[in-house]
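#structure-requests
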Amino acid sequence: MVTPVQALAGISDRADDPAALKVAFTGAESALAAVGGTPPTDIATALTTVTTTFSAANTALKANAYSYKAAAAKDAKALEALDDPTFTKATDNIQAWAVKNCDGFAK
């Protein structure tokens, strides 16, 4: 779950490539959908931040055929949130937790 979601940070660097955006966002969408049940307390807040931020950006991009420019014109705040330090910190916290608590999780 962590790697596809972490790949969204800095996604604006790939803003000119709708196909790459679609791959990145559908991968993250699948990864987040695979997380079920109640998250561990240590990462519950981080997971909520990631899910909320991702969902808003994903909705904006889907509605605009993964055109970053078109989506940003309609909902810039949702896309800018992916570059926000709060989102990055949340994905980093989930990564650190997974490394510490999940056997075989790559660093």
